[in-house]
Amino acid sequence: MMRLRALAELVRAPAALSVPGDVVAGAAATGVLDRRTGGLAGASVCLYWAGMAANDWADRELDAVERPERPIPSGRVPAPVALGVAAGLTAAGLAISGAVGGRRALAVASPLAAAVWAYDLWAKNTVAGPLAMAACRALDVLHGASTGRLVRAVPAALAVGAHTYTVTALSRGEVSGTQPRVAAATLATTVAVAAAVARPDAAAPAGAATSVARLLTVDYARRYGQAQAGVLGDPAPPRVRAVVGAGITALPALQGALIARTGAIRAGLAVAAAAPLGRALARWISPT
After folding, report:
1. Residue 154 located in a structural domain
2. Block means of pLDDT (10 residues each) for the chain, length 288 residues?
């Protein structure tokens, strides 16, 4: 019988802690942070886990050579089961989204699900890979905003999308290493994202909201930026895997800053609290 740990590894369970923050950031940006937000976050987690399972199913032959310890090549999760998990989680995510947010939420969740599968089955190994993954996370932010005015969540979606682009671009060097110029470009992007998020939100009350947002932004930039700086001098695979993990576990701090700057300070701090929890769980199951 398959062990629960094998399935948790298949879907990169700890990495899903970064998903609800997308939805909350979108909802906060549009002023629709309410009881529906939790349901939409649950739907997004299902779609994220589906993407992880589909990723490993699509890469099963390559992983047999490069990462034989993963659930499918190691024999702990049969390939048909992994595909079934991916399909089942996709259906669950879409069903939950529609039930909670109605047609407007489903109108965003459907292209989000399509983008996830397109990335896994086609775009991942092309030059469009990082952009496709960035689109997935940007759509996830808009999923949270789907019951309000989507346009108001576009800046938050772009910030999360830009961050995701950097992580995905770096992740391509997890097996063979990356190039210093890639690390330099992603570091510059991280600095630009942090600078944009640290600016006060003109539509939100100043004072505490701005201060909390800036503190969280600094924490995000410090953790992820330091890891990227390390790759400049050592672009070997172990260092690259470490910086990718840092990018994943630092995302909640960025999301928390985006949320706090709208005035939803408690929600922002709650989302940011997922960062240390994610780092702790990453020691048990790799998020990459």
Report:
1. yes
2. 82 88 97 96 98 96 92 95 97 98 98 98 94 98 96 97 97 89 95 93 75 95 94 91 89 96 95 78 65
